[in-house]
Amino acid sequence: MQGLLFDRYILNNKIDNIKIDDIDNKLKILKGWVNKFEILSQKNEKNLQPIFFETIFKKVLDYTDLITDEDVWSIQFEEKTEVDSTKPDGILGVYTNSTAATYAVIELKGFDVDLDKKQMREGKNYGTPVDQAYSYAHKFDDCEWIIVSNMLEIRLYKNGTSQNFYESFYLNDILNEADFKKFYFLLTKNSIVQPAKKSPLLNLVEKTNTQKQKITKEFYTYYSQTRSSLWETLKKNNSGYDDEILLEKSQKILNRITFIRFCEANNLLKANTLKSFYEEGKNSKLSSWEFLETLFNYIDKGNTKNDINRYNGGLFKEDTVLNNIVIPDKDFEVIEKFFDYNFKDELTIDILGHIFEQSISDIEALKGIKKEEIGSRKANGVFYTPEYITSYIVKDAIDDWIENEKVRLDFNSLTDWKNAKSKSAESRSINRHIEKLKELKDALNNIKILDAACGSGAFLIKVFEYLVQKHKEIQKEIADLNALRTGGIENNLALDLDMDREILKNNIYGIDLNKESVEITKLSLWLQTANNKKPLTTLDDNIIVGNSIVNDEEIAPARVINWEKEFTSVQEKGGFDIIVGNPPYVPIDFLDSDTSEYFQEEYQDILKNKWDISVIFMHKCVSFLNSSGVLSMIVPRTWLTGANYTKFREVFSSELNLNKIISLPKDVFPDANVDTCIFIGTKDNPGNKIEKNYLAYKYDIKAKISVLNVIDDDMDSIPIDFIKQHHMNKIFTDINSYKLYNKIQVLLKDESNYTQLGSITDSTQGPVESKFEYSTRPITKYHIPYLKDGQGYRYRLNVESSNYINLSEKQTLISYYVKQPRLYCRRIVNRQDRLMVSYCENDLVTKKELNPFIVTDNRFHIKYIYALFNSKLLSYIYINFSTLALKDDYRQTTLKELRELPIKIINSDKQIQVVKKVEELEHNIYQFDKLYEQACAQLSAILNIKLNQALKNFYRLNFADFLKAVKKVTKLNKNLIQELDELRDVYSMELLELENSILEIDNEIENIVYKLYELTDEEIQKIEEHYSTFTNSSSLFSLK
């Protein structure tokens, strides 16, 4: 369902105040284009594009090109993007002979192209025209706007905003002055071609978002407080009922009121129906609640006197508890604010959806559900999915299924009617196309789609919307072909009024543990489909309360699903056609002991040690699919590479043909530290065509995204066999990782030249601080110096303070920390994707964040291993091949996988060359740190303050910028300026020289390592490109 980019009230106020020069002439030009639709539609798309740009963009919307304005122009055609050779059809911005700032991209298609339909060429998915336009937009640094058109309709999108939100203009509908003014204001040169600070459109977006956030927060607060207030009222006045039942009824009253207000706003009920019944009751001898009960009954059964449709459906079904409860008028006044909210333009379905999502957590909080219990949501791994994710998963899954159906229905046998050699052949070809499209429509009528953990129904709402869209697309194709066959006018009929009901009743299914979630899902779907001609669709058999992954009544009392009974029509098909969703990410050790033991026993053959139940949903959902079903979910990505998921990957990939995996950035869920991925696969069976490759895409972990516009061309095509060839069946999301992995495996087989880190070292985890005793002096021989405050970094061990730890109860640890040099590898991987390894010769026990490695093989010099361990290459290998769990938003290492790092065997003479470089680097770092600390102490004393980050970097600033930084913290005077100048003279040049020398030596060591491991120029470039995206990629100056 389309959402609007701009708040209507804010936009209309803006439009009311604009004046358009020469508006009559512009409307005349536009009418001329519209009047020639039929003639123009016969022309080739490429031939039409220049005419469209000239007519609409230049003459109507005031853009200029190089020819009309030689100094500065605002439109260019088919310009390559800034990062690759792909080309939008047009770009809008400020252009001169030497500069270019692009603010909008244009994707222009022909008259017969559906802007929402994916374009398939030679079996390859190029995405919809909208997808293609979005893929261009992020390749221009200044691009804020995306324009997509088929020369009949023009759409405006905001770059970085979901594709479901846009402004749409059909050119034949804007021939009156009022609609034209809106079109002109939103697309004219003076609105689009503006820097961010001056852009009237960005100002509108900001005001719209501010208003949306304000109304969402305000209504959510009121909605939540009203629920609590109603519950307290019901408990106070209806003592004969259980509190939890009364909470359920409080939510049901809110659901009914919300539905009524929504219907009033959308002309499905008379305006103020709710308010009229409420006030009439308040002014009568009865109560307002009793009058609302009458209204609820009218809505359930219909009432012609009040022009109320019979909605039925279950929401207003007679409820014996509600029939008997008492709500005094003074306590029911809390609902009056409902009458004041605008449910048409402000409280949209999208906003209500967010409020419904949060309501589920609120209800659980009111019930007192503890976070240790499986039903608790956010605390136990239930995170609400951003709209752009649900949209992508649903569309991709349904499109995959449709493409598979087309293969099954033999669409490949269809011939192009345009190439027919006779009229009769053309007619036969068109008839054949129509026949196949009708078969596809019949198949779509019978599709069965499940969300096995449906929550508030976000995925199912997208399923409904997209099924409606696909029905319209097929119906339009049939109508167009019928028009061609008969030579008549296109007969593009609207969908039957019953189609919405049929989709809900026959195609959509949901399961959730939480009864309130199920009721909110139903409400969400009813809001999508309510009309004043038909009853609501009864969803009791489609959206059910149950436990999708537990089959034991003792573990899940009253929640075990009888699949044959609950989903009879689905079972008759052999299972679901599609399953989508975002299952809970509950770690196994967060579950109660009975549930945990149940899962451990049930899945002991495929899961080991720690795991979360999202993989159980994945495994179970495959079994719920029919023989050609499609599964797509967003889940934690630890299953792709985690050692404890090795057997699971083997089993899962044998059951499901993986089609696509997208590794997402870490901030997809703002309130969750979890790395996620989207996968889509097709049920494997002997009759299916087995795909030889899967498509994969890996976002930068730090990327900020609010849309998913990855098309097939952007993705790596990876042979499925690569998974099977990996010794742990690991699934990577870029092909270079497999290439490097395969290369390393070949190298490791050459035992004369390569070994693993674990084969030449002993290592252990640092002690857990809370389990030991400490003292300020060595009381016994088991009291060893301990790093109390400090940390390890690349080529640095920062010891701020120490005391003594008593290891008498853990004497096996002592050998790792005394009498011999060791390396400390920090448990976390830093923000620059680097392993951080430091060196120590003194006796020193470290906390658990630093793991000691002792070199035990006398063929290797410890500082040679030190260099390899700190190299970009080994960091890159680790982050790409290992399981990166999260700790407080940082990714962390495991000793098992660190021990698997490949070590190049070289003779001692070559090692000494590397060691000399390391020692030179250590010396320069020591000199730098000593001088830097001295300089900072002196600067702090001069200013008499604790230095901020800018001042800590004083030596990198020119004197003017240095003074600006000082001026922010203290007043400048002549003497102070002189002192600061002298300080810079003493320290800055030497610090910069040392810093450059450190970076130069570090880079020399990196290149030596690349050469030792025989990397190709292409492989080196790949690694260097990865690290070039980070500020301070060396991580050598992260102390400041």
Please tell me about this protein's structure.
Residues 966-997 form a coiled coil. Keywords: Coiled coil, DNA-binding, Methyltransferase, Restriction system, S-adenosyl-L-methionine, Transferase. Residues 506-669 form the Type II methyltransferase M.TaqI-like domain. The protein has five domains: 8-198, tt1808, chain A, CATH 3.90.1570; 207-380, no CATH class; 446-733, Vaccinia Virus protein VP39 (Rossmann fold, 3-Layer(aba) Sandwich), CATH 3.40.50; 756-905, Adenine-n6-DNA-methyltransferase TaqI, Chain A, domain 2 (Alpha-Beta Complex), CATH 3.90.220.10; 912-1028. It is built from 36 helices and 29 strands. The strands form seven sheets. The protein has a nine-stranded mixed sheet, sandwiched between helices. Strands 1-2-3-6-7-8 form a six-stranded mixed sheet. A four-stranded antiparallel sheet has the order 19-26-23-25. A hairpin with a 3-residue loop joins strand 6 (145-149) and strand 7. The chain is globular, with a radius of gyration of 33 Å. The two termini are 50 Å apart.
